[in-house]
Amino acid sequence: MTRPRLLIMTDLDGTLLDHESYHWEAARPALQRLAAANIPVIINSSKTAAEIRELRGRLNNNWPFVAENGAFVVISPEFSGNPREQTVTFGATLADIHRTLDQLRADGFRFRSFRDMSVAELAALTSLPASRAQLARQRSGTEPLVWQGSEPSLVQFEVALQAAGLRLVRGGRFFHVMGPFDKADGVRFLLGNYRERFAGERVVAIGLGDSPNDQQMLEAVDVPVIIRGVRSDRVILPSARHGIRSLKPGPEGWNECVLNLLIEYGY
User: pTM for the whole thing?
Assistant: First the structure.
C-alpha cells in the first residue's frame, strides 16, 4: 500500500515549544525526520507573523504558517509553487477590535491588553527577551489580554464581545479577542490547497495542540494529537474523533508522538 502524504499542523507554546522556556530542541529528532521526508510542518499559532518568521528562521522552516489564531495565512512559494509569498486574511481588523475594547473599558470592564503594556512589562509577564516581546506586540488581527475582573464579569464581557461580532478565546497564557475565525480556518484552507495540488493521492493531516485554543484545529485534521500541558485536560474531542494524548509535555511529547506516527505511516 502506498504511504500517504503527511501534513503537520502544529501549535507552538506548550506544544512544539516548552511552556516555560520556549525551547524546542527536544523535538529535534522528529523535526529532522520530517525535513528529510519533505513533510510540511505548518505552524498554527496565536503568535504574530513577526514572531513566527523569527522562529521559522531558527527551525529552518520554509512552509506556510497561520498567525494570530487564524487571522491570516501566509503561503510560501515552497508550498504553493508560486514565485512569491501570498497572504490570505480572515476576520476583523485590529482597529475594529481596539475600538470595541475601548468602549468596553469605558463601560467598566477591567483588563490589560498587549496594547496597554510596555515591551518591558510584556517581557516580564511572558519570560520572553525584550526583542521577542517587541515582536509579540506587532499584531494585525487579534489582541491578547490579561483579565483583571471577576468571573461573572468575564461572562458579561464575552457576551458584549459577541454582540460586537468578536470572540474571546482562552489560550495558554492570555485571553485573545478576535474576529469570527479560528485556527481551523487556516487548516481547512491549506489542507484544501494541498489536496487539490496532489489530487488522487491520499493526504493525511496531523494536528498537534495543548489547549482549548487548539480545539477547532484538532477537530479539522485527520489525526488530532493533544500534547500534555497545563490546560490539555480541557481539550475534549467529539466521541467520533479518536485523538492521541501524549504522555510527556511540550516538545518531548511532540517528538515522541510524531516519531510514532511517522513509523505508523511508513516513514
Answer: 0.86
